[in-house]
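User: Reviewer 2 asked us to show a designed sequence for the structure in our supplementary figure. I'm pasting the structure tokens here. Could you produce the per-position amino acids so we can include them in the response letter?
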């Protein structure tokens, strides 16, 4: 991306997402930055827009929240924050294991979306207070899920978004397995 600022990268990500999904006759969903915490807000009445909110203007947050939306099925997309639990920093080992279990698919998609933008990807354990990073098993599971997505495909929303990002950012097809190496996850 060269000298492009993170905010202009984020603006492009938002534009691509909203072009793909904001139309009322489509999925009526908008990606919005500038929030202190990420959150999904489904429209509560007919025709009300669904909002995928991400933290400030961070490209990684935008891609991560878009990935959660792409993973969520139709019923989950009717619920605030998709109906999932969230435990903040300071999780127990058991809570962290559950976090890693449910985060494999969104983080795998986030990696694909980051590649489509020409951006780097960093696995997030999202448990900063403990000082523990992502486990090796978590990294391997994310890498394996990316390999599966590249080989077997993704749902239509994820496919459209990834390919649209690649086109907007002038990147090659992000669904090539060789572009993803386990050792790149640190």
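Assistant: Here is a per-position design you can include in the supplement:
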């Amino acid at each position: 991306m060269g000298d492009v600022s993170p905010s202009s990268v984020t603006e492009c990500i938002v534009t691509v997402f909203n072009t793909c999904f904001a139309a009322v006759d489509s999925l009526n969903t908008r990606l919005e930055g500038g929030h202190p915490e990420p959150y999904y807000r489904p429209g509560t009445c007919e025709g009300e827009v669904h909002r995928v909110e991400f933290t400030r203007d961070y490209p990684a947050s935008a891609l991560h929240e878009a990935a959660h939306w792409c993973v969520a099925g139709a019923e989950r997309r009717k619920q605030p924050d998709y109906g999932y639990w969230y435990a903040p920093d300071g999780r127990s080992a058991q809570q962290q294991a559950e976090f890693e279990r449910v985060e494999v698919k969104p983080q795998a998609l986030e990696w694909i979306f980051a590649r489509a933008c020409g951006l780097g990807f960093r696995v997030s354990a999202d448990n900063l207070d403990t000082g523990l990073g992502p486990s090796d098993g978590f990294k391997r599971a994310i890498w394996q899920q990316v390999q599966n997505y590249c080989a077997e495909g993704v749902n239509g929303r994820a496919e459209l978004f990834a390919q649209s990002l690649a086109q907007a950012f002038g990147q090659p097809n992000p669904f090539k397995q060789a572009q993803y190496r386990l050792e790149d996850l640190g």
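For the response letter, you might also mention the following. The chain has two domains: 6-83, 93-185. The first helix runs from residue 6 to 21.
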